[in-house]
Amino acid sequence: MLKFIFMILFSFMLLFYKNIYWMVQNLLFFITFLFMLNVFSMNYFMSISYYFGIDMISYGLILLSLFICSLMLMASESIIRFNNYINLFLFMILFLLFMLILTFSSMSMFMFYLFFESSLIPTLFLILGWGYQPERLQAGMYLLFYTLLASLPLLIGIFYIKMISFSMNFVVLSLFINYNLNYLYLCLIFAFLVKMPMFLVHLWLPKAHVEAPVSGSMILAGVLLKLGGYGLLRMFSILQISGMKYNFIWISISLIGGVLVSLICLWQMDLKSLIAYSSVAHMGIVLGGLMTMTYWGLNGSYTLMIAHGLCSSGLFCLANISYERMSSRSLLINKGMLNFMPSLSLWWFLLCSSNMAAPPTLNLLGEISLMNSIISWSWLTMIMLSLLSFFSAAYTLYLFAYSQHGKVYSGNMFFFISNIREYLLLMLHWLPLNLLILKSNLCMLWI
Predict the structure, then answer these.
(1) Structure pTM?
(2) What's the Cα-to-Cα distance from 271 to each of 86, 328, 330, 398, rounded to whole Å?
(3) Tens digit of pLDDT for each residue in 185-224?
(4) Cα distance between residue 84 and residue 107, in whole Å
(5) Percent of the chain with pLDDT over 70
(6) d(C-alpha 55, C-alpha 312), whole Å
(7) Which helix (H) or strand (E) covers residue 340, if one does?
(8) How do the domains of the chain map onto residue ranges?
(9) Sign of torsion, CA 80 86 87 91?
(10) DSSP codes joined into one string, 252-284
(11) What is the DSSP string of 34-58?
């Protein structure tokens, strides 16, 4: 594992050169493909070195982080066009990628906490430094305080576990699943519920997405929301007894919240805001399935996390492509795109259909697994799940129909036809999303 960590670390040296942007992007793609080859030699825990190692849960999420960070650089061409602190921007993305890889490969609970919190810093700088509007300061404060307030109890919980078990290693702790940590249960999972984000603590996410540049939105939707799911997957190996008592609370909030957020999506007029709220609805069902603590639930939540990372990131790219042409994210202005960019409408259709879990996407596999696990947990959940599925299709069709059909807005427009970079960017989101289902046993956890 250390070889990949050092590859990222030494790539910081490139930032002392000028005109290095595309070189760094190609290097990240190269590291992604090198990492991809590792799956053939995968044991349960691979490449254990000092405090770092990868199992199948980490593998998919590290690969997703590398891939999304490569695509972030491809999407952010406007940074080069306006000469907007290019090397500082590259530094932030490399630093964020470095922290994410360390987070997902940490075997110690304290190291995981340390890097989990550190990934907040470059994200905050991306929003504050390269955001579009003055409201980005408020969005940054929301992000900072929500995350910090929720994660301080987690630190106390980790130290308490160290005190009673004399270890902070995930593998060692998972052998002692008889902890009855009722009073620590909330402390240990609340930080991850905020990061997911669960309904009621989700307000920071739409604000952060709307104010972030395209790269910030891509990494937020693609990887940072998955930190919460990954943390819960790790924590529930030691919280099984408490989880069986109290998990019904979070499943209820997630499913009811998912339906309410889907309704909120239907009256959004901002492209990015609509996609951000749809992320909250999808993460609600992921959280519900994960909290059932069944094999189907864990597999489904992991699969949908990977699928949502690719799909949501692609939708944010599309929203940014429209924003660059129209200088607005309003659905009232972004109408009738089919008239002058029909080939881009195809990508809107493909990614919107992925977002509503149409076959043959990986989203479908994840949602079927999650529905299986949640309904087997309690048949009453069928009511909320059916509403969630219906409204999910409704707001996705609303997004597609409203942005592609209708009369073209006749205000000040700066049209230039899409270039190959944008089509390649969208294809790299959509292709893995639909090809991974052919080898879907890779997305199933080896538990």
Answers:
(1) 0.94
(2) 27, 9, 6, 11
(3) 898 999 999 999 999 999 999 999 999 999 999 999 999 9
(4) 38
(5) 93
(6) 25
(7) helix 337-340
(8) 1-444
(9) negative
(10) HHHHHHHHHHHHHHTT--BHHHHHHHHHHHHHH
(11) HHHGGGGG--SSEEEETTEEE-HHH
